[in-house]
Amino acid sequence: MAVHEIQAKTMLSHHTSPDPWFGLKYTFNIYRGCQHRCIYCDSRSLCYGIDDFDDILVKVNAIERLADELPRKRVVGLVGTGSMSDPYGPIEAEYGLARRALEVVLRHRYPLHLITKSDLVLRDTDLLARIAERAAYVSFTVTTADDELAARLEPGAPSPTRRYAAMAALARAGVTVGVTMMPILPMIEDTLENVTAVVESAVAAGATYVLPGFGMTLRNRQRDYYYAQLDRLFPGLRARYERRYGERYDCSCPNTAQLQAHFDGLVAQHGLQTRVPPYVAPSPGQQLSLL
Ligand code: SF4
């Protein structure tokens, strides 16, 4: 793995209307490439133009760009990071850019939705707690609650046990936390026991929402990489994928209906939400009382 420093032309992507799953109005990524090396990562797809995803590109002017672009937005909405590259990969311990990005978000009074697999996020609990006075959601991606399986599927990421411990600590600090339970890998993670374990561990850690995805997407270069990893980790499984999915992009779990029904029961039992609640800006009167 190599680290390269680059200059970003722009940082914030804008969504015309908040996306229905994550509630995001704006997104940014500080890093390109990711050290967590999840075998299923969609960011390896050709369309993203990242030739060697295991190399890390650090946008060293990210904070200057963000500090310039964010205050020029007319509409306040949920700012997200973590969809293309984890902002709290090991490289962040060295660069500290995610922390400085949170300072910008706090300074300009924007709500935040951060997605990560790393307990390094705990380093920034102080800032997240202050952003949470407006709205801060931290979603931990957990596809299996089994540490041993996760170590094979997500070899560079902290274990699910560490993620749940971080979730609980953030919840205690007043941050809204939840789980992005996606992807659930077909024929590997698609058991009722796994869904139960992910959801019940989330509840125990203070999660208020779990976003499910019973299946995965596969395309071009990312599919090649994933199948090579299946050959290494689960000999024989590639042939079952090829028979079932061919060249399809959407690869839902064979037992999706059963998993969904089971998940619905867990959600009802524990009073969980299944989407990040849309952000509603405070009315002018409320804003004054916040000052
Ligand atoms: S943490 Fe996310 S961005 Fe990083 S390798 Fe895993 S799936 Fe990809």
Question: Key features?
Answer:
single chain, 291 residues, alpha/beta, TIM Barrel, 11 helices, binds iron/sulfur cluster
Write structural notes for this entry.
This protein has 291 residues and is an alpha/beta fold. It has one domain (3-280): Alpha-Beta Barrel (TIM Barrel). Helix content is 37%, strand content 15%. It is built from 11 helices and 12 strands. The chain has a 7-stranded mixed sheet, with helices on one face. A 3-stranded mixed sheet has the order 1-5-4, with no helix packed on it. Strands 11-12 form a two-stranded antiparallel ribbon. Helix 3 (97-107) runs parallel beside helix 4 and helix 7 (192-204) runs parallel beside helix 10 (256-270). The longest helix is centred in the last third of the chain and has 15 residues, at 256-270. It is globular. The protein binds iron/sulfur cluster. Residues 34, 36-38, 41, 43, 85-86, 117, 157 line the site of iron/sulfur cluster. Iron/sulfur cluster binds at residues 34, 36-38, 41, 43, 85-86, 117, 157.
Entry summary:
This protein is α/β, with parallel strands linked by helices.
Structural class based on helices, strands and sheet pairing: alpha/beta
Strand order of the largest sheet: 2-3-6-7-8-9-10
Supply Rg. 19 Å
| Residues in β-strands, percent | 15-25%
Number of helices: 11
Bound ligands, each once: iron/sulfur cluster
Cα distance spanning the termini: 46 Å
Quantity of strands, as a count: 12
Q: Let me know the average pLDDT.
A: 94
The name of the CATH architecture is Alpha-Beta Barrel
CATH fold naming: TIM Barrel
Count structural domains.
Answer: 1
List SSEs in N-to-C order: EEEEEHEHHEHEHHEHEEHHEHH
